[in-house]
Amino acid sequence: MFSLHRTLIGSAFAALLAIAGTPADAQGSSGIPVASAPASASGDARAPYAWTDFCKRAPSECRVDTREPERIELTAKAWKTIVALNSRINREIEPITDEEHWGVVDRWDIPADGKGDCEDYALLKRKRLAEAGLPRRAMLMTVVIDEENAGHAVLMIRTDRGDFVLDNKRNAILPWSQTGYVYVKRESQYQTGWTSLGGTQTPTVASVQR
Fold it and tell me: For the whole model, what pTM was predicted?
């Protein structure tokens, strides 16, 4: 379902968005992002089949703890942690297709061997951020349609300043509404399952400011 997105995919879109940092217009004077509208979910959605398989192998990664907060309080410390970890994992993981890696069309996994594709980057980011003390419930695996009209997985971070996207295609952490993606579905915050994002389309990002 999900195609490989290498750091140097050769498209103008990727070249523009591979600049580290967050766009200046998404940040306040403190460097913490300004508030943005959250992404609205509506109704149940079928989980990706590879997610279901992953949950059978790693059930602890899929459980929803409703005692955790739904959103992260986005302090300067939390933002610094998110930015640093996102960039670090984007550097650490060697991009490889599931066909090359596992001999199957689609497999989701924590990339313990240092190799993976889009969903594997996102799963590792979620795991590492949870280990750093951020609530797993506020960090949601999310399926989108990207600028190449292909299925793609990202990690959506829900915060008190809006929802942001951690992506293996760029180090910039963008508000969900500034990615240019079509949002299909994401993990539910209320039960083990997925919820629809209604195919919400966001404006194409033309440039990224340092």
Answer: 0.85
